[in-house]
Amino acid sequence: MKSHESISHLPGDGYPANCFDNLVQLLLIDSLCRFVLGFPPELVYGRVLPGAAVSILVGNLFYAYQAKKLAERTGRTDVCAPDFLGRHSLTNV
Question: How wide is the angle at C-alpha 81 spanned by C-alphas 30 and 67, nearest 5°?
């Protein structure tokens, strides 16, 4: 086995885990903003969470684009993109 080869997984294997992680992070942002920082619900639900959702979408799309370009440039088929929110949770708060 080559050094970059690993145990194969089904395509989309990490998608449910990524969705669950993003949900947990959004719930954490909601709780911290409302109960620790004292933000009013109108601010949290009207500005903070929609802004976080847009940043998650744009970040994940950009990471997927980078992975696609890397795979094309190197000819590899085992390239993947990390999830955006899990790596940048604190910047969303």
Answer: 140
Please state the pTM of the whole predicted model: 0.64
**Contact call for residues 63 and 34 (beta carbons, < 8 A):** no
* DSSP class of 45: I
Tell me the residue type at 69: K
Tell me the two tokens of residue 22: 């993003």
CA distance 63 to 29: 22
Distance CA 71, CA 9 (A): 18
- With contact defined as beta carbons under 8 Å apart, do 91 and 31 qualify? no
Q: pLDDT (tens digit, 9 = 90+) per residue, 12-67?
A: 566 677 777 778 888 999 999 999 999 999 999 999 999 988 888 888 888 889 88
